[in-house]
Amino acid sequence: MFMEFQFSLAQLTVLNTSPVEIASMAADCGYDFVSMRQIYMGLPGEPDFDLAKNSTLMRETKKVFADTGIRLLDIELARVFDGMDVKKYEPAMETAAELGGKHVISSIWTPEREYYLEKFAEICDLAKQYNLTVDLEYVPIASVKTLAGTVDVLRTVNRSNAGLMVDVHHFHRAQDDVAELAKLPAEWFHFGHLCDAPGEIPAEKDEMTRILREERSYVGEGGIDVASIMNAMPPMPYSIELPNLKKVAELGYKEHARRCLETARAYCAGRVTGRKA
User: Fold this and answer.
1) Mean pLDDT estimate for the chain
2) Which single residue of 29, 147, 226, 234 has CA 20 to 30 Å from 5?
3) Which pLDDT does position 1 carry in this prediction?
């Protein structure tokens, strides 16, 4: 069965690129979408390309979108953490809506269940004003780190614009079951994160974190059964989140981004159909 795959270029794949650069690169390489970091996290060495604070860069970004036809899929990252102010995410949501984006990624970094349920619900309610979904990503080094924990949040909060964003790396590291994934409501799935990684799960958190942030593999070149995970979910766009510092040093951002797309397309063809409705 032929399936038309749609792919986005994620910010973490080409981390230190401006919105203009990542959009131009995605278009040149043949991606359908771009996924941009518009919520500044203040990490060491992280550039701040907040379009809500830079009208010139916003204008230039809009021109790239108009000239190339590239589209915005999602923005990141609306984290839930202690002492947060949800309203601080609103400018980024305004930016996403203005650029035609559809989704905001969220993840949970505090262990207090009642608190994170309340704040995630607030993020959903704020995003709904901009016709955005909020897609909860579980991460093996975060507080909500499994499929079951994420399902608990979605069912409890019960917001119409809340979704589940599965990263195949995180799914594998959590040792989750594709049979459980296949049981979940189709309307929860808006897009996913695609990459590969060594099949052996690191025992140490530091090594887990290093691979997660710096050394993921091209799809089909690692040890994850990527196809089985994708086939447990409905057909949808995939954002290729594949940071690899060695490949970037060797190839440069653009060629790395191109190889990410080429390997993903080659792997998915004939292996992935997505679960039937």
Assistant:
1) 96
2) 147
3) 39
